[in-house]
């Protein structure tokens, strides 16, 4: 009898725990996703970089209904709050941050690009929130680059990581067929703030302020910080993937040569070996991706995989003066080398 009673109690307890567990799991799924803003170990690679953050708009509060949500929340204010959160995260890991504005002031598009260019920023990110009339249900993340894919390889590298980081952080229910868009889909000349910026540059529309539910969330500081964290992780992953580059070793950068038909030698670097990574000996770049330009003209080259040296034989005599050499590479993360020409003088 005692044994039978024990089994009955055990069954009742098990059923109770089962339903209690189900109830608990249901309660968790209905709550907002927990906010996480830890600093992963790979964010250490951000140290030493200079990033220009551009909180979109500003200084136009007097314009009726300009860039506002359904209840009047201003996009410019939201953009700035997210950018300031992002600035703090980047500075915490040793990144130099340039801001195009730190208050509700108007800054022209040309001035924003000028700030990035004159500060020699490594890359530029313009932070925005989208809006659309007569479609309040629309809400997704999009990231924009300038021109055609062939014109913006480095910016597209950055755009992919930003798009993924912000999308993962906000977890909006809708995702478009592609989150990456050319600015020339909107205007023939593209966005001025991207077109005029010399370093890799993107513009991210994190979500739609015109969506009533999203506008409510964008008034929550914790949600804004989570958005900033998405940017932060996207930037960190972008940098962690390394920057391949070709280093001019003969003649050396800024040196002078007497011959007008020099044989150039360029050392290939994948942006990862120098960190001490455990990798194959050869620099891990895609051989077929290598392209060398002298004064903007593509020249034939030979790449020695054993020495990681590119040789370019210039047969047509160069003119006296300064000449620029640019080496285009893609490493095994798919990262393109940054536009950083080296020079020598004849």
Mind sketching the topology for me?
Blueprint: H1 2-30, E1 50-55, H2 75-92, E2 96-99, H3 109-118, E3 123-130, E4 142-145, H4 153-170, E5 180-182, H5 192-195, E6 201-208, H6 212-217, H7 221-240, E7 245-250, E8 263-269, E9 291-294, E10 297-299, E11 302-304, E12 309-313, E13 322-328, E14 342-345
Parallel strand pairs: 1-2, 1-3, 3-6, 4-5
Antiparallel strand pairs: 4-6, 7-8, 8-12, 9-10, 9-13, 11-12, 13-14
Description of the structure:
The protein is of the alpha/beta class. The protein folds into 2 domains: 35-240, Aminopeptidase, CATH 3.40.630; 245-345, Immunoglobulin-like. It has helices at 2-30, 75-92, 109-118, 153-170, 192-195, 212-217, 221-240, and strands spanning 50-55, 96-99, 123-130, 142-145, 180-182, 201-208, 245-250, 263-269, 291-294, 297-299, 302-304, 309-313, 322-328, 342-345. Strand 4 (142-145), helix 4 (153-170) and strand 5 form a beta-alpha-beta unit. Helix 4 runs antiparallel to helix 7. It is elongated. The protein starts with a helix and ends with a strand. The relative contact order is 0.12. Mean pLDDT is 90; it is low at 1-34.
Pick out its properties:
346 residues; alpha/beta; Aminopeptidase; 7 helices; elongated
Please outline what is shown here.
30% of the residues lie in helices and 21% in strands. It is of the alpha/beta class and 346 residues long.
């Amino acid at each position: 009898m005692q044994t039978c009673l024990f089994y009955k109690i055990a069954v009742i307890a098990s059923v109770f725990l089962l339903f209690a567990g189900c109830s608990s799991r249901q309660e968790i799924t209905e709550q907002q996703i927990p906010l996480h803003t830890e600093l992963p170990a790979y964010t250490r690679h951000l140290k030493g970089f200079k990033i220009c953050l551009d909180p979109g708009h500003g200084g136009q509060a007097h314009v009726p209904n300009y860039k506002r949500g359904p209840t009047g929340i201003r996009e410019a204010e939201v953009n700035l709050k997210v950018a300031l959160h992002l600035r703090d995260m980047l500075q915490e890991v040793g990144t130099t941050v340039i801001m195009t504005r730190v208050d509700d002031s108007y800054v022209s598009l040309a001035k924003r690009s000028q700030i990035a260019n004159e500060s020699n920023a490594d890359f530029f990110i313009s932070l925005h929130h989208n809006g659309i009339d007569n479609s309040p249900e629309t809400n997704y993340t999009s990231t924009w680059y300038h021109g055609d894919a062939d014109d913006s390889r480095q910016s597209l590298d950055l755009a992919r990581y930003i798009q993924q980081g912000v999308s993962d952080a906000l977890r909006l229910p809708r995702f478009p067929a592609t989150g990456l868009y050319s600015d020339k889909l909107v205007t023939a000349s593209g966005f001025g703030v991207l077109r005029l910026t010399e370093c890799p540059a993107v513009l991210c529309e994190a979500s739609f302020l015109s969506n009533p539910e999203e506008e409510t969330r964008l008034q929550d500081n914790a949600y804004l910080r989570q958005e900033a964290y998405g940017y932060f992780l996207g930037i960190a992953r972008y940098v962690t993937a390394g920057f391949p580059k070709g280093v001019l070793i003969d003649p050396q950068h800024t040196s002078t040569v007497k011959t007008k038909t020099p044989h150039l030698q360029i050392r290939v670097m994948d942006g990862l070996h120098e960190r001490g990574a455990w990798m194959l000996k050869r620099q891990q770049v895609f051989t077929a991706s290598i392209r060398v330009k002298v004064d903007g003209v593509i020249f034939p080259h030979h790449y020695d995989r054993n020495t990681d040296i590119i040789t370019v034989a210039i047969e047509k005599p160069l003119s006296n003066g300064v000449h620029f050499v640019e080496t285009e590479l893609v490493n095994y993360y798919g990262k393109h080398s940054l536009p950083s020409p080296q020079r020598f003088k004849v």
